[in-house]
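Notes from hallway chat w/ T.B., transcribed later so I don't forget. T.B. wanted the structure written out for a chain they're using in a teaching module, and asked if we could keep both sequence and structure tokens in one place. Agreed to drop them here.
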Amino acid sequence: MEEFLNKARALYPGLPESFIQLYARYWESTGDAQQAISQTRQDPQYDNIFPGNKTERGQIRYDEVTYFALEDSYIGTLAEYGIPRATSLNILQDRFVNLLENEVSANEFQQRVAAVYRGIQENIPQVQQFYADNFGINLDEQSIFLGALDPTVGEDIVAGKITTAQIGGEAARAGFTISLEEAERIQRFGLSQQEARRLFTQAQTEIPRIQELQTRGGREPVEQFGLTEFTEAAVFQSPKELEEIRRLEAEEQSSFTPIGGATRRGGRVTGLTQY
């Protein structure tokens, strides 16, 4: 038996001793390395050593060396961003099997981690806070990564959450509060964080100016022009809000400048940037 144990360790260096013992026993009984690995994979103990490595039809997802190499690559990726091994193991706990079952490759895992790190972890505090508040996580490093590494959620959804948090964070940075639904709507329209920053920075000056136009001459506006109305005009090109701005500015002989720059021509607000 010792001879087969040594052979198994040489063939599968670094793999769990429980696998080595099982494989060596079958190798000794069959005298054939290929038959031994086949029988090892059919043994009930195999699923405890390599959870998630079999499909529903019982097919092997990865060979045994690749299985553990994939886990090591996940841990290595997190280590690149300063996550200690112990924390990485906590992050991957109960997720590694799901990552395997959803065929999240080492490359895809790396892309997700990089996106979260650049988009959330390295971003302004308001973005981190919006992400935490609206996606049900804590602001600690481990929770932020956990929120984006759910293997059942596609990469496009992860990216959408990150951009949504960036939009909500930029609104907060400019002194505004927007709901998750409002941020998601702007995100679906295609605005980036940089464009959202321009939007809300301009809103800081344009909204008070338009509100002043509404109250000129002691008038009481039917509906005060706020961030929602500004966004409807500047981003979504809403005819109702654009007409209200046109009417006010026609009275004052002035101009409105939404994102990208706008001018009045022939009584119409024009030049709004299309996203």
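Follow-up for T.B.: Confidence is low (pLDDT under 50) at residues 260-275. Might be a good example for the class.
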